[in-house]
Amino acid sequence: MRKLREKLFLRQIENVFKNSHFYKRKYEGVGINLNGIKSLDDIKKLPFTTKEEVREAYPLGLMSTD
Questions:
Q1: Which residues have a Cβ under 8 Å from the Cβ of 58 and sit 6 or more positions away?
Q2: What pTM does this model have?
Q3: 16-56: pLDDT as tens digits
Q4: How far apart are alpha carbons 2 and 51 in whole angstroms?
Q5: Which of 7, 3, 6, 29 is CA-nearest to residue 17?
Q6: CA-to-CA separations, 37 to 8, 48, 65, in angstroms, rounded
Q7: pLDDT category, 66, cuts 50, 70, 90?
Q8: CA angle, corner 61, sides to 59 and 64, nearest 5?
Q9: Fewest CB atoms less than 10 Å from the CB: which of 2, 17, 37, 63?
Q10: 10/15 Cα distance (integer angstroms)
Q11: The predicted structure's pLDDT at residue 39
Q12: In terms of Cα–Cα distance, which of 61, 49, 43 is closest to 32?
């Protein structure tokens, strides 16, 4: 089960870095790049998204898919 979770997590992170300008800027702003996320344990490195950030990005700023 952990391997599946890790696979899905890494797929999601890759999607976010490639398709979401909001999260790419946010993560790179704190020194995180796609190569720095190698396992599910690296989730600890990711900063929380605040309610204020969600409000500022509304309605489409957090999109990472068509």
A1: none
A2: 0.77
A3: 888 888 888 899 999 999 999 999 999 999 999 899 988 88
A4: 29
A5: 29
A6: 13, 15, 21
A7: low
A8: 115
A9: 2
A10: 9
A11: 95
A12: 43
Look up residue 42 and give its two tokens. 């690296």
Residue-range domain boundaries for the chain: 2-57
Looking at this protein, which amino acid is placed at residue 12? Q
Instruction: At 3, list the tokens.
Output: 């391997």
Record the tokens describing residue 63, joined without a space.
């999109």
The phi and psi torsions of 13 (rounded to 5 degrees) equal -60, -45
Q: What angle do CA 5, 53, 17 make, to 5 degrees?
A: 45
Both tokens of 17, joined, read 């870095």
